[in-house]
Amino acid sequence: EDALLDQRMPARGELGLLRKQLIVMRRYMAPQRDVYARLASEKLAWMDDTERRRMQEIADRLGRGLDDLDAGVARTAILADEVASAMAESMNRRTYTMSLMAMIFLPATFLTGLFGVNLGGIPGGEWRYGFSIFCLLLVALAVGVAGYLRKRRWL
């Protein structure tokens, strides 16, 4: 919990391993609680009242321990969900950024592909400043798309 609150992601398998250990521990403690509770409730000739009370105290303590284990299992499940949610949010942010970058450069990629077909009659192909003007237009197009995205508050 502390690592998650400090914005540090715990190792992926760490929570799963902890949850598995808590479940195994619960599997061993539950029958012990039942045995001690049964010993405390039955009247056995070799056990007096103080020993029965002691058995009941042990059963109660084991019951509280089992409640703590159940709470720990539930907490690890919640933490695993929080980690998965944080990882999904991080992935969504990265995907969003990459989509915006593609949106900025996609028109420029189309135009460079269109003008790179090696056919005659391309506008500005024979002009000495044609390539420079074309590059400036591509930069202006990218800046224009970025400005549009910023105006729409997507960037």
Please give a quick description of this structure.
Helix content is 79%, strand content 0%. It has 155 residues and is mainly α. It has a single domain (2-151), classed as Up-down Bundle (Methane Monooxygenase Hydroxylase, Chain G, domain 1), CATH 1.20.58.
What does this structure look like?
With 155 residues, this protein is mainly alpha-helical. The chain has one domain: Up-down Bundle (Methane Monooxygenase Hydroxylase, Chain G, domain 1), CATH 1.20.58.340. It is built from four helices and no strands.
Record keyword descriptors for this entry:
155 residues, mainly alpha, Methane Monooxygenase Hydroxylase, Chain G, domain 1, 4 helices, 0% strand
What fraction strand?
under 5%
Structural class by secondary-structure content: mainly alpha
N- and C-termini, Cα separation: 33 Å
CA-atom Rg in angstroms: 34 Å
Task: Please tally the helical runs, counting DSSP H or I stretches of 4 or more residues.
Answer: 4
Family: Belongs to the CorA metal ion transporter (MIT) (TC 1.A.35) family.
Protein name: Zinc transporter ZntB
Transmembrane segments: 96-117, 129-149
Keywords: Cell inner membrane, Cell membrane, Ion transport, Membrane, Transmembrane, Transmembrane helix, Transport, Zinc
